[in-house]
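Form 7-S
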Amino acid sequence: MILNRLIWIVITKNYQHILALIFAVKGINENHQLLPNVTLGFHIYESYSKEWWTYQATMELLSTRNKFIPNYKCGIRNNLISVIGGLHSQISLSMANILGTYKVPQFTYGSAPGMNESIESVPFYQMALNEDYQYKGILLLFLHFRWIWVGILAKNDENGERFVQTMSTVFLQHGTCVAFLERLNIIYHPKDLVWLTKMYHIVMKSNASVVVVYEKSILHLRWLLHLPEMGMVTMKPKGKVWIMTAQMELTSLHYQRSWDIQTIHGALSFTIHSNNILGYQNFIQSRNPSSVKEDIFLREVWEQVFNCVWPNSGLGKVKGDICTGMENLENLPGAFFEMNMIGHSYSIYNAVYAVAHALHAVQMHQMQHRAVVNGGRLSLWDIQPWQLHQFLRRVHFNNTAGDEVYFNQNGELVAGFDIINWVTFPNQSFLRVKVGKLDLQAPPDKMFTIHGDAITWHKSFNQVLPLSVCTESCHPGYSKRKQEGKPFCCYDCIPCPEGKISSQKDMDNCLKCPDDRYPTQKQDICIPKDISFLSYKEPLGIILAVLALLFSLFTALVLRVFLRYQDTPIVKANNQELTYALLVSLLLCFLCTLLFIGPPTKVLCLVRQTTFGIVFSVAVSCVLAKTITVVLAFMATKPGSRMRKWVGKRLSNSIVLSCSLIQASICAVWLATSPSFPDANMDAQSTEIVLECNEGSSSMFYCVLGYMGFLAIVCFSVAFLARKLPDSFNEAKFITFSMLVFCSVWISFVPTYLSTKGKHMVAVEIFSILASTAGLLGFIFFPKCYIIVLRPELNKKEQLIRKKSCKI
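Output:
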């Protein structure tokens, strides 16, 4: 095994990696069923994180014991079977340049190295999953909590650049923006704290609550968060959710013993899956510098973790506590040493057992083929490292913790990541709380699981799920509008335009409601439109219906009066039959308004406008005939006048029939070409569906009205000219007033009708019918009824003869 450890700085927590190796080898050697009559050994080499040291240590592994003679073995030699690389990928890559030539099985227990063309054929066995899976896990975590505005702190090296490029692309594809991106460098000098101070202000001033940290260790992040305690900055740290990758562990160096770790309270970390190994804690507790003399690392680690010095007669007096060897490892804060086997140590443990099971498979293979050597005893001495690959690829076993261990076709351990929540305490201790996992073997919908209720967030969030957005969410009823010059995650919230809604938060665009629905006042949902038509159940419909019936009753009473007094002079005057026809047509005009009230049906839509047009035309034709009869009667009184032959029922009947037939012909063409039909108007009212009769052809509708208007104007003109003809019962002046009212009503009807919507259009037409018909009834027949009923003395023949001379 080759370690990487700085000679001047000891990360005491990494000592557990050695203990996991020793514990695994010890357990295998004590298990006589796994490798009977075989004893495993190991060598540990230090690389000091230097490339040339790594090369030298690798060459020593391939040389004769205690002699540096590469590629040549003589005398006592090591039987090299496999190598476990360093924690960091660069160590493994440097080793691979040499080990790849000899096809020596190489295990990596840290982050999986990024391969290049020169070493892509190196037989790696990766005990930790490729980093790409971590990227996927981080993205799924962000999507789950809807964190779309995040910061990135990345190591300033090739791996850090790869992380930044990959995550930036992934974030962009899934709607997440990078609030800031800063590079972490190694601190060699106090001057390096200047750029660290600038980075501190960038991180703490940002409104991004989530920060992803990609580093080899947590030491640089701890330097960053320690700046307020050093007095380098006055700005107090803000609560953040720190997202750590698998290669990072919460560790402390000896000079960081008193540094506060509360600032990383609530952090989330993707860690290599691990489990409790039976007997591991007892093994650790049994180790101390007094009982284990061969462990050259233990004394140095002991001094670091307990902050003491071993007595040395050569040094004389020493400052500080003296190490006794009776100190208890269980009392150490987790940042210095942990009693449970953590991810990287668990990977080393499984790697050693993978080799042991591969060797066991070799023994079984030799036994099956009767390979007997050394006096009938099976031997592994003659196996070459490259021959072990075929057995390592097929390794599949359950370790002592019950986890399955096997490799896929790419030499990667089939495993997953645990998502750990770090809960820190003021005494430098912390808890690892497992809150989720990334299981690549599970179905897609169960591959990523997270238990948000189990997460302890930083105290500044008051145990409420942290939000990490550039701007506050747009509530329903609003849509997003991108802010110029900023990432797409930064936007303004603008209200939805009229007629549109947004039913969810942060919608890019407002949606139009279906035709049968309309937005609420908040414009957050669409609700069904009310069905609207002029009904007998509403006040407006009741009032119009009552008016129609009352006017119909008055008309019927007038007709009754005229029929009762049909032999009186005033009734006989001005063509008695035209009077009855006019009254009947007026009665029908009042009653036809009832066709406009109620839900439109196919039959009603076909008959109501045509009935109205024809009946009204008959009424106006009757008035026109009466007016022309009056004029002709006076003209016929002249001596020698030829007009006498025109005076009579034939002319009046001809006028009524001809004028009515023209209107009937227009209505027939209308019904034949484009008849009215029931329709649901979705656009007339924003909150209602108006049930109405679609007129089919608006041109034909206005032709009907236009023709009635033409008759009315002709009638008004004739009556106006005849209004001063001498006669006690001259109807011309009353017809003039009635037609003036009639024309005024229908002239004002057109703009009013066009400016109203929905059922009010029907109400306007009904009102116009009632008003114009009532005008005809009132001005023409009220004076006559007044004389017949209240002034019968005027209803005599002598009143028809006026003694006053008149010139025509």
